[in-house]
Amino acid sequence: MKIILKKKIVFLSSLLLIAFTFSPSISYAETYITNDDVRFGANWYKEGSPYILDEDISINNGHALNIYKGVTVISASTTNETGNLHTITVDQGEIDMQGTKDDPIFIENLKYIYFNYSEIANFDNVILNKTGLDFWHSTSSINNTIIKNSENAINTTASNISINNSKIIKNKIGIASHQTESPPVLIFNDDMYKFEGVGGMGNATEGIADTILDFKQNIININNSEIENNTDYGILQESVNPINAVNNWWGNPNGPSNDEVIAGDRISGLINYIPWINKNIIKCCSNVLFLPGIEASRLYKDSLGLFGTSTNQLWEPNRNDDVRKLYLDKDGKSIDSTIYTKDILDSAFGLKSIYESFIAMMNSVVADGSIKQWLPYAYDWRMSVEEIVKNGDLIKVVQDLAKNSKTGKVIIIAHSNGGLVTKELLKALELKREGEIIEKVINVAVPELGTPQALLGLLHANNQSIFSGVVLSENNARTFSQNMSGAYGLLPSRKFFENRPESVISNLFSSSTYSTASLYDSMKNFLLFNSFSKASSTDINIPLILNPSLISISDSIHSVIDIFKPASTTKTLSIFGWGLPTSEAIQYEKDKHCNPNLKKLIKQTCPNIYSPILTHSGDGTVLTKTNSNNSDSTLFFNLKNIEKNLDKTIEHGDILESADLLNKIKDTVIDSTSTDKNYDKYFSNTEPIDTDKYLTIKVYSPVDIHIYDKNGNHTGIIENPIPGKDLRNYEKNIPTSYYGNFGGLKMIRVPYNQDYQILLKGTGEGVFSVDASITQFDQTIATISFDEMPVSTDMNGEMIIATSTETFSNKSLINIDENDDGIAEHEYKEKGHHKKIHKKIKKLPKKLRHVRVTENNVQAKEHN
Question: How far apart are the first and last CA of the chain?
């Protein structure tokens, strides 16, 4: 881009003093612009301001002019009488002006800015003085903008214009809406004869006010704005499509003037302006729709009995049989068609808050008058996002929210799977030519391109049991999800692999064609044809063969929504949680203690063992790499620092319980530019770089592992939650730690270079092995293995880990107390090095010493 920078510093003339009300002494280098400077697009920054047009300039097809905060643009000639004012023409190109409340963009004394077949024309915090906008077959979003002292502030033909929180003042005509070609012939049915005054002056009657009669004509929405002191017309409407102009100030408490009323700015034509508002009470903002995540809407079934109708809440369930009632057929259809939903989860089982704080925050935003209404939308998350939008009333809910909104628009806040529903909803609204009613979308922890944790859930029901299987067993959860379209929509999509070519499935022992999955088709083949998978099994360590038709449906949906971008009038923000151990792949291996030679003699089957490969680039469920990069802006929310600084674990499921995140969402909803909140502490525009090292320990059964940090925080298995039941439960109180129980394998991950007490407890008879590794930047930098050590239910062990990667392999060791007397009789080092010792070791706390775990006990009971 050719830009001539004058080598002098100038003070601006009185014409531009308004630009520096708060800092009158600031000055910048002039930048003179010719058409050659913008031939291939351009970026204009404050440092080069003012930008002075030496001639008319044009932004052509395929190119964009981006103007940033604090920029001033003027014409080299500032004399109206000469007719030499220069223009900006956007001819099938794009223009994006992004000022801020405290540092707006100033456009002064241009003849006009003309748009011809331009699909993107964004104005945010812009002041246009003596500069009008002229739109021909174009789309524009105008927010927080002032247009004043022009002939026609906004001139429109065959265009889609959205105006919010703006001022159109002191012009000859505020908005002029012109008809193109010949008007359509209007055919009214019997119901439409009820509307009186159609086609007359002033307000369009309710019922037809929002009806688009001709898609070739203007579609104009102006809300929560000031239309004042425009000498001829506030709005001159000559098109057949009614203009939505509700909730505006017209310069008079009695509203606008027409042939019947003399009040504020004059209007003419089909305009829906009731209700209007008084200037003193103009206050944002758009109504809010909230779309929750998967499993976050309650599901019910009504039954008719002797004493009338009773309601059974099936989700959240209180027993396994509740979930069986939610099963679906192979087409993904509910076996029981009478199941319905009506509310979202404030807390799960009344024990863990999910949306409790979020609900309270949104209620406060309504209570303080910032918005008129917000609605949480419960949906049947068993279904695909396409079915949720197509078969429900979601579109009507949005339309009704928009009609009741101060701005005529809606803000969508979506959590997790709700973000995928949102994409499908926006697509449906676009087809109805109503995409402009969505002002903003705030996506929170949305698996935009899917996430590998969905593989663990569908194949092995990982983390799917409730109350250790008493309420929902892993086997029942996996059977339930096998035909659940909603769950398949969370699988990594084709576009996921474009962003991340690494394998999401790794088979360490098989020579099968489908042993790894680093492309979508190889993942699909593994899910459908892998040789050691089964169509059904009560052993959750054996991966299921998934439903081919539901994989195809999910693939079809993602092929559209993964590349979908909403209307240019809709601003989108994606917030991803970062810093917690998150699954990025599944790794399969054979049981370490299975002798492949001996198994042939005794017909033993070597079982498969699976475990996740972890990264900290996620929120515990959703990877940051699922970002589709289709949002206008992206933020990364540092959950690792939240846990360290606040001693509070916030994960994917309860991320909307974070006060810091709720403050950010609230400020985004109400367009607050408050500076009293230090968002830089936990939010960043770029993904943080994790330089920490992590210790991962894998224990091959039958042994439990417990880790304590220097503050006494514990990560590992805990006592049975229900006395008398042989159940599994665990905690992870060490900050950013991970614990997983995968049948024959227990896995713990903690930050490295810290002092830990690592204790082992035998839970059965035989031998056990331990693998430990150090990783940094998701790469393994040191490993050690302890193989074939004897174990009994009386065994206690203590693992000593070297605190240096250089000595990790030769200084780390395990001391074994074989008879629970507090004295270690054996010391084990890498590669089977063993010696007898007599050394006192730390024993497991008494309350945990006799926890007994039978790996598949819950599943066996379930199967029986």
Answer: 74
CA distances from 177 to 43, 660, 739 (A): 31, 44, 63
Given a contact cutoff of 8 angstroms between Cβ atoms, the answer to whether 153 and 147 are in contact is yes
Which pTM was predicted?
0.73
Mean pLDDT computed over 311-334? 95
Which of 118, 66, 63 has its CA nearest to residue 97? 66
312 vs 128: CA distance, rounded Å: 60
Cβ contacts of 246 within 8 Å, gap of 6 or more: 223, 272, 273, 274, 275, 276, 408
pLDDT 10s digits, 231-271: 999 999 998 889 999 989 998 888 899 866 778 899 999 99
> C-alpha dihedral over 345, 346, 348, 354, to 10 degrees?
100
Measure the CA dihedral 547/550/554/559, to 10°.
100
CA distance 447 to 486: 12
Work out the burial of residue 760: count CB atoms within 10 Å of its CB; fewer than 13 is exposed, 13-18 middle, 19 or more buried: buried
For 511, other C-beta atoms within 10 Å of its C-beta total 6
Tens of pLDDT, residue by residue over 167-199, are 999 999 999 999 987 544 444 343 433 333 333
Dihedrals phi, psi of 133, to nearest 5 degrees: -115, 135
Residues with Cβ within 8 Å of 520's Cβ and at least 6 positions away in sequence, in order, are 492, 493, 494, 496, 497, 555
Q: What is the DSSP string of 285-311?
A: --EEEEE--TT-EEEEEEEEETTEEEE
Residue in 406, 506, 495 with CA at minimum distance from that of residue 448: 495
